[in-house]
Amino acid sequence: MYSKKPKGATQFSYTRYPWILCVDLIIYLAVMFLIREVYFSQFNFIANGLFWSLTTLIVATILMRIRGISWKELGLCKPENYKKTLFATAFIFAFTIISIVIFQTLKEQLGLQTAADMSNQKATSKFGNLSGNWPLFFSIIPFIWVQSMLEELLDRGFMLNWIERALGSYWIATLIAVILQACIFGFRHSYDISDRSITVGLIGLAMGIGYVCFGRNLWPLIIAHCLLNTISMLDRV
């Protein structure tokens, strides 16, 4: 997976010392969750969200630098094949939508109960009243895209790879890493088992599968994530 180490990077044996990556993950997850306890009331939710993600990104980048890994090696690089990239983006986008529809259908038919979901009220307080407010939409959507990109870097680029490497080089490690990062991704968005956390978890699962199946390039995930969040915001206008 990591074909080439940056010039001057520290040489490190992941197979001999997988527990070191577990330590990295503990540090990373601790920062990811604890930083959310810091909230600057003078700024809106989007600004605070970007602060949380950028802080976590700095920690991830430091850990990567220590281990001799670059973001390029994790998939933040120019796609080798643009047609494949477009196909991967379309697949991830469609697979995500289908997964969410199947979940909602099963929930209704089986009468499944989840935690009370106040996402609509929370969205209003987080983003302001978007109903019919196109100027507000266009003013915040670039920041939504930046946040979408940061989530792909952190959850698929860093977390999935670190979990996978910590567990070993077998296919089961990849499977566990894809599922576990999706669970963490979903839980982090609402801290409960609600429609929102499950839906976000399904998005993380689709992104993780797409990442592993389509050459581990982050751009299809970033583009698909931006499209999904754009549609979600448009639904509120």
Overview of the molecule:
The protein has 8 helices and no strands. The chain is an all-alpha fold and 237 residues long. It has a domain of 147 residues.
Question: What's the number of helices?
Answer: 8
Biggest sheet, in brief?
Answer: none
How many strand elements? 0
**What shape does the CA trace take?**
globular
- Average pLDDT, rounded to a whole number, is 87
Secondary structure category: mainly alpha
Low-pLDDT stretches = 1-11
Radius of gyration, Cα only, in angstroms?
Answer: 18 Å
Please give the alpha-carbon distance between the first and last residues. 42 Å
How are helices and strands ordered from N to C?
A: HHHHHHHH
Helix content: 55-70%
Question: Short description, anyone?
Answer:
The protein has 237 residues and is an all-alpha fold. It is built from eight helices and no strands.
